[in-house]
Amino acid sequence: HQQLFEKHLVLLRDGRTLIGYLRSIDQFANLVFHQTVERIHVGKKFGDIPRGIFIVRGENVVLLGEIDMDKPCDTVLQQVSIEEILEEQRLQQQAKQETEKVKMQVLKDRGLSIPKADNLDEY
Amino acid sequence: TNAERNEEKTKKNHPDDMWWPENGEDWSDGEGGTDMDSGLQAMAEEDEEINVHNEETFGMDLDANGTTEKSSSSLQFGEAPPSPPPPPPATPPPPQPKPRSPRRAPSPPRQKLQYFPWASSRQRGRSRGQRAALGRGQMFEDPAVMRIIEGRPSLKVTKMNLCQTRAFMFPPTHPCPSTPQTPKMMQLRFGANSPRPSPFYSPSNPVQPFRYPGPATQLHPQHKRLLSQKQRKPEGWDPYCNLMTAKEKEWITRLQMIQLQSENPYLEDYYYQEYYRRIESKMAEEELGIRSKREPPKLTTPYVKKTDSYTPVVHIEGSLGQVAVSTCYSPRRAISAVHAYQKDTRLQRLDILNKIEKLFMVLLEVEETERMKTPLLSEAEERRLVEKIQRKVEHIYSQLQHHNPLESEGDFIPFLLVSKGKKLVARLLPFLKHDSALKILRVVTTNLPTLMSRDADETLPVLYPPLRNVIGGLAFSQLIGVLKDLTSLESLTTYECLELACQNKFGLSLLYALLSQGEKLLSSGVPLEPSIGDFETWTDIIFQVAGQLSQCSLVEPLLLPSNLLTLFCRYLDKRTVHQLKSNMESVTGCLALPS
């Protein structure tokens, strides 16, 4: 029963990635994470924000996996500071919003409208 | 009724139950749990009474009278609720929360296995009510629960089925025949704040799970192996490592295993099954050299009997919506859908593609049924499955054969020109009787140039393994017939036919396979019963092939049979044989004769 000694990685429905020690689970897949870190990825950079103890409600989990510490880490990803990654993320979101705006305008000009994906989630 | 019966039982079993409302009605939010407003009040009242840290909330009570022999309502999976979500069967409400009763030690201990469905958004509104109900172990009318298995999967379960979307749907009126009604149930412990340890659950006295008859869901043997390999001694002690006890982990694991049950794992859990099947076959390949025959351990899943489903709705092709079935009291004209035949080639192609898709579905069913044939089946069952397979195979075969009477391309050809069609035929071949398979082989050989030239995706090789098996079952005359097909095509000489074949991977491999079979037959000593002219054709072809092989540059075949050179040695002089040998070997890079 080594499952709670290794670090786990969980991807949440809102897109956040949390890494930490999984201390407890229950039948609903509610998770208790210890020494949690929220990892933000932008391009090839990533940054870790320490979050402490996290309790995740099961319904918000997309996937959960164990991190194999033994596996050689030959990643091309580069760790940066929190400020930097947050800034990168902000820029990324901004760019995305702008392209989205342009796209919507183009579609509107042609009389089409595509519903936004986040609305579809509420069924 | 069910509800009343449950109530009766639970009254007997839990005489000291306290704060559960008398009727199931008081639980539910009205119809089907969708009407939240009226239920909110009830829930608010419930919440005051629920002590979250109370063991009873999580249903860890042992009953004071653990003498009931038959299973309580908690295991009545079969009786699915009349309407989802079901109101849990009720127990009589006590005046106030009672102090924990001293536990007697019934022998053997009564045990209760709880099942908690993974909460999904639809259960959001009811989760609290359910949780309380679950504490009583009365949530088992949940249709998602099929069966409780007492297994011992004390392994890490990294395969978590979150957001379980599989629908374990029972038709509401049919009780599940495979529900095990066992007299023993297991009680589990949960909750770190429980005031008092149960006398049955101390670590020194681990409860023996009662084994249900029949196989339990387990992880694939390969998976287990991988997990156990990964387990090692913990390096250093973590101050928080015991937040979850082993029992709790086991409990969760068991729950998840239950969810993995399905009557059709290859359908519902395809990627997991396929992944481990491939690992298995890879290992088997490696081990084949090392050890002689060791059957790789097969995954056992519980055989869940499929309840006979019926389609209440008749759907006629081309009609909009459902069609009322006509009876003598209400005759209704069937909608006649007219499919106008179009000469349009694009539509024809679409038609073929459509047909391939439909037939593929049938093929998948055939393969699935084939997989279900285990030694555990009864005779009647096995016969039924075999019949089912035969019926479907024949259906696919006849559909492939006669696509369109107006079509001039011949049987099977339109399908063989499509990549997926080739795959379909390749997977169908193992199921066909020898005659039918031979027919397909002859179609392939007769139309080999066409097939080879119109094989843009190079998917022809997918047909090689099954056709090789068919060739392996040919008698001499049949073999000669096939070779004749290959070499006597309209407007092409034998030489030209062979030339074409030798320059195509598939063609060459097929040719090799045929020759190899001939050699096998000749050297086997079995009486060949040849027809007139067979041997002449045979030797003629040998010479022609030898001529071909020694002259032109060869492509690499899919498989180089080991007895080819032996064959050539019979008929040809040493020099030619030597020439052939070097020619063939230079392409494949391996020896034409086994060392």
TrEMBL record, chain A:
SUPFAM superfamilies: Sm-like ribonucleoproteins. It is found in: Cytoplasm; Cytoplasm, P-body. CDD domains: LSm1. Keywords: Cytoplasm, mRNA processing, mRNA splicing, Phosphoprotein, Ribonucleoprotein, RNA-binding. InterPro entries: Lsm1 (IPR034104), LSM_dom_sf (IPR010920), PTHR15588 (IPR044642), Sm (IPR047575), Sm_dom_euk/arc (IPR001163). Gene3D superfamilies: 2.30.30.100. One of its GO terms (molecular function) is mRNA binding. SMART domains: Sm. One of its GO terms (cellular component) is P-body. PROSITE patterns: SM. Belongs to the snRNP Sm proteins family. This is U6 snRNA-associated Sm-like protein LSm1. It comes from Astatotilapia calliptera.
TrEMBL record, chain B:
The keyword Hydrolase does not apply. GO terms for biological process: deadenylation-dependent decapping of nuclear-transcribed mRNA; P-body assembly. Residues 1-17 have a biased composition (Basic and acidic residues). Residues 81-109 have a biased composition (Pro residues). Residues 65-76 have a biased composition (Polar residues). It is found in: Cytoplasm; Nucleus. One of its GO terms (molecular function) is RNA binding. Coiled coil: none annotated. It comes from the Eukaryota. Keywords: Cytoplasm, Nucleus, RNA-binding. The keyword Cytoplasm applies. Residues 23-34 have a biased composition (Acidic residues). InterPro entries: Pat1-like, PAT1_dom. Residues 315-451 form the mRNA decay factor PAT1 domain. Residues 1-136 are annotated as: Disordered. One of its GO terms (cellular component) is nucleus. PANTHER family: PROTEIN PAT1 HOMOLOG 2 (PTHR21551:SF3), TOPOISOMERASE II-ASSOCIATED PROTEIN PAT1 (PTHR21551). Belongs to the PAT1 family. This is mRNA decay factor PAT1 domain-containing protein. It comes from Astatotilapia calliptera. The gene is PATL2.
